[in-house]
Amino acid sequence: MSTSDIINSVVALAAIGTIILTIMMIRESKLMRKFYTTPDINIFLEFAEASPTLLFIVIENSGAGTAIDVKFELIKDYNFYNDFDTLKLGNKGIIKNGVRNFYPKQKFRYFISSLDGDFEEKSSDSIKLKLNYKLENGKENSKFYELYIEEYLGGGMFTPGDTHIRQISYRLEQIQKDFNKITSIIVSENK
Predict the structure, then answer these.
(1) Phi and psi of 124, rounded to 5°?
(2) Residue 2 gets which letter from DSSP?
(3) What is the pLDDT of residues 111-161, one digit of tens each?
(4) Looking only at Cα atoms, what is the longest distance across the chain?
């Protein structure tokens, strides 16, 4: 082999390596573009910060893209609405009406019910939803969610609380107790 053959072979290998790297970069670029245009809608249950018996459903687009023409089909509703629960899940906001554009980081939170009274029966219930939406490129997607309430149990409440709102609530509660003590002392001394 001559020197020119060796140089030509090295140049050819470098060209092949460059082609392979370019193809890999194009593929990575397509995946990144898809990631930044794809919504990721999640539906989950959570309890109120102030009471571990108040149940909410949360619908959130945690993806980086916008979901278009979002529609919900309530397959199985919660069976234990209390008298004060004015609207059942199927009649609430976007579950009933859908939403044209569900933007990234957008979140909807709806009160379902309180688990007070008949706790065992209420906590063994579930909610089933089907979600249909379109991507920006027109492709249709659907997801099925089955939310079992018993899977979310056991969180409880922390005193004084682990969130800013719970801290404020706890401190106000302590002030109210101190105020009641002072008031009772003043009233008893004035008798």
Answers:
(1) -90, 0
(2) -
(3) 888 777 777 777 788 899 999 999 888 899 999 999 988 887 765 555 566
(4) 117
Structure tokens at 136: 């920006």
Residue with tokens 């109210």: 176
Q: How many CA atoms lie within 13 A of 191 on its CB side?
A: 6
Distance of CA 159 to the CA centre of its chain: 25
Phi, psi of 146, rounded to the nearest 5 degrees? -125, 110
Query: Coil, strand or helix: which one is 157?
Result: coil
The reported pTM is: 0.69
Cα separation, 58 vs 111, whole angstroms: 9
- The CA-to-CA distance between both ends of the chain, in Å, stands at 116
Strands 54-61 and 41-47: antiparallel
Mapped onto helix, strand or coil, the DSSP state of residue 160 is: coil
Instruction: Please check whether residue 64 is in contact with residue 37, taking contact to mean a CB–CB distance below 8 angstroms.
Output: yes
